[in-house]
Amino acid sequence: MEHSDPTPSQAPVTAGNRLTIDLAALARNWQSLAARADRAETSAAVKGNAYGIGVEPAVRALARVGCRTFFVALPDEGLRVRAAMPDATIYVLNGLATNLASVHAEATLRPVIGSSGELDEWAAYRAAGGSGNAALHVDTGMNRLGVTFAEAQELAADTGLVDRLGLSLAMSHLACADTPAHPLNASQLATMQDVKALFPGLPVSLANTAGIVLGPDYHFDLVRPGIGLYGGPFVEGMAPLETVVTAEARIVQIRDVPAGQTVGYGAAQTLARPSRIAILSTGYADGYHRAAGSTDSRPGAATFLHGRVAPLVGRVSMDLMAIDVTDIPEAGRGDWVELFGPNMPVADVAAAAGTISYEFLTSLGARYARHYLGDA
């Protein structure tokens, strides 16, 4: 039996899967976090193609509700933000790439400088007459990017450094903010307060989404929410904000499989009962992780269809995956199945694959037909 599309989003008939992206929910999530941040400016992390939803529509939606500062990982991402919002302030988190100081400055991208080599190159560029601003990243305990606190002390001793380098921000990144009781949070906060004292008058940023929830001491002058904007979980035990992304796949076939038989590659799962199996037109080539599949030794992820949960059966393959619809008799060819969204949280699907929601969102493949709710 054929079934009509049950949702208002109309994907092309050539697409096997689709994303419905609620830009209004994205904007409301930003407003909720901005309200928590109180007097601190609220920016937005739009790296990783805005966590998979698309840089340009995300930036435009956020700009409409007042966001003016954006964080990306790479200069290429920054150029896309610049094209979407010509007057935005844009910071490049992965630092100053070798021999690209002029490229950053010409596009008014601000590199987040986090090593002595980057500092030397940026200083030489500015001394030769180059323009542009930059941020200084100080490592407060994550041991990933950033100059050490001792190096920051040496830099602060040069009273003309901030103006000479065009520094507009001092920042660091919390390692354990999603676990509020972790002692490293307080340690990083104390170090960042010392950094602020080293550079009086220079704006300071520490808090990611979870850091905003830790309280006003962590807010400083600028907060940088990321995953929370896109509806992902950000603090242990706290419900996420509104769902932004709903991923769906089309049923291409339904088949009856006897008890004792297996489904898919590797015969990974044996059916314990006669089952009605729906085959979905999506797989790991679309960013749905292979590790989310089900085996005889452990259950995998689940999907949502016609108001009920339908678990995965067997391995996820490149372009296809199987779900058990034995208890959903109305399921039929052409139905759209929720892979994750309002009824099937992305965090639950990611946990079944042994990963986190960030990885599912940022891995969303090009074959999804993207439909935007609100102005894109």
Describe this structure in words.
With 376 residues, this protein is an alpha/beta fold. The protein contains twelve helices and 17 strands. The longest helix is centred in the middle third of the chain and has 16 residues, at 183-198. The protein is elongated. Residues 1-9 have low confidence and may be disordered. It holds the Pfam family Ala_racemase_N. Residues 244-373 form the Alanine racemase C-terminal domain.
List the keywords.
Lyase, Ornithine Decarboxylase, Chain A, domain 1, TIM Barrel, 376 residues, eight-stranded mixed β-sheet, alpha/beta, single chain, seven-stranded parallel β-sheet
Quick recap:
It catalyses: L-alanine = D-alanine. This protein is α/β, with parallel strands linked by helices and about 375 residues long.
How are the elements arranged and paired?
Elements: E1 17-22, H1 23-37, E2 41-42, E3 44-45, H2 47-51, H3 55-64, E4 69-72, H4 75-84, E5 89-92, H5 101-106, E6 109-113, H6 116-127, E7 134-137, H7 149-156, H8 161-165, E8 167-171, H9 183-198, E9 204-205, H10 209-213, E10 222-223, E11 245-257, E12 275-280, E13 302-305, E14 308-313, E15 321-324, E16 336-340, H11 346-352, H12 357-362, E17 369-373
Parallel strand pairs: 1-17, 2-10, 3-4, 4-5, 5-6, 6-7, 7-8, 8-9
Antiparallel strand pairs: 1-11, 11-12, 11-16, 12-15, 13-14, 14-15
Number of strands: 17
Could you give a short account of the major beta sheet? 8 strands, mixed
> Would you identify the CATH architecture of the largest domain?
Alpha-Beta Barrel
Total count of helical runs of at least 4 residues: 12
Rounded to the nearest angstrom, the radius of gyration is: 24 Å
Task: Say which CATH homologous superfamily of the largest domain is assigned.
Answer: Alanine racemase
Strand percentage lies at 15-25%
